[in-house]
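Lab notes, practical 5.
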Amino acid sequence: MILFKSLEVWLLVISGLFWNTASAGYVVLINDYIVNNTDLNELEAALGITIAGIGNIVACIGLALTGSLKFNRFILSMSAMSLNSIGIFVGSFATTKAIYYTSTSLYGLGLGIAVASILAVISDICPVHQLPLLFGIECFSKGLGGLALLPLAAYIAENTEEKYGLLFVGSCGVVGALAMLAIAVLTARKRS
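Output from the prediction step:
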């Protein structure tokens, strides 16, 4: 299959694998970290995840409303993954409600934009008849990231501090964003 010979496809797989570890890992690890390292209780920590969900919804609606604008989809996705990772890094150093809720809103906005733009990203990589196959490969790579790297993040958090697990998943998000940046560079070179 010609699809598997494309470097962009493999970079998309790498991006999905690492980015899903970041997005899922934050939700898994943040509540314990916040409850154990701040004066917030379980309900206030859970409210942060609700704020992330609201940020996710706002981002999806905003992306739908601006969909007619001609953004570079790879740069948009890379920026969303970076915003998601910034939220994770800020959350791993949260000491107050304000910092924690800000980090979860950044995380939610980045998550919403990245998820809402994935089909557009995939459609720029492959022809229409291969779109379902590449979407399935992308979903598989995200699941693989959750199965392979998320337990490692939990192990790190359990055996050191939750902060280091969060830093690990934030770093995974950066790797995912860098893989998307590499796709943007490759496609720009092909077009010029």
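Observations recorded by the TA: The chain has a mean pLDDT of 92. The radius of gyration is 17 Å.
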